[in-house]
Amino acid sequence: LYFIEPKMMRRMSCKPAQRVAAPLALVAQRPASTVAIQVQGLHFVGTGLAAIALAGVGLGIGTIFGNLLVACARQPNQVKMLFNYAILGFALTEAIGLFALMLAFLMLF
User: Fold this and answer.
1) pTM above 0.70, yes or no
2) What sign does the CA torsion over 19, 24, 25, 31 have?
3) Which of 13, 17, 42, 82 registers the highest number of CB atoms within 10 A of its CB?
4) For residue range 65-108, what is the model confidence (pLDDT) as tens digits?
């Protein structure tokens, strides 16, 4: 019995391709300003990503005051203390929003 290799499994003997140097006048030069335009446009992307934090702040403030209403309905005698805690939570959450907004404006301008 003889083993015969299929044609597609045979190794082709080929010579390495020789590189031909192109004259410098024929090579197309890319303008350097394309990279600068792409980098300048990225600050808009960063500003948009920083503005996503403002949506989280809105959700946080809504959660704080929604839970305040639930807590006041359960414990009507402690409304003043619960309101003070809610205002503290609101202030801290709003501070995060202001920092995110400041960061977005710093990246934009």
Assistant:
1) no
2) positive
3) 82
4) 999 999 999 999 999 999 999 999 999 999 999 998 998 888 88
User: Residue 109 in contact with residue 44, Cβ under 8 Å?
Assistant: no
Distance CA 20, CA 37 (A): 34
- Closest to 94 (Cα-Cα) out of 57, 68, 62, 64: 57
Q: Residue 47: pLDDT band by 50, 70, 90 thresholds?
A: confident
8 A C-beta contact, residue 86 and residue 68 = yes
Between the CA of residue 77 and those of 40, 74, 86, what are the distances in Å? 57, 9, 16
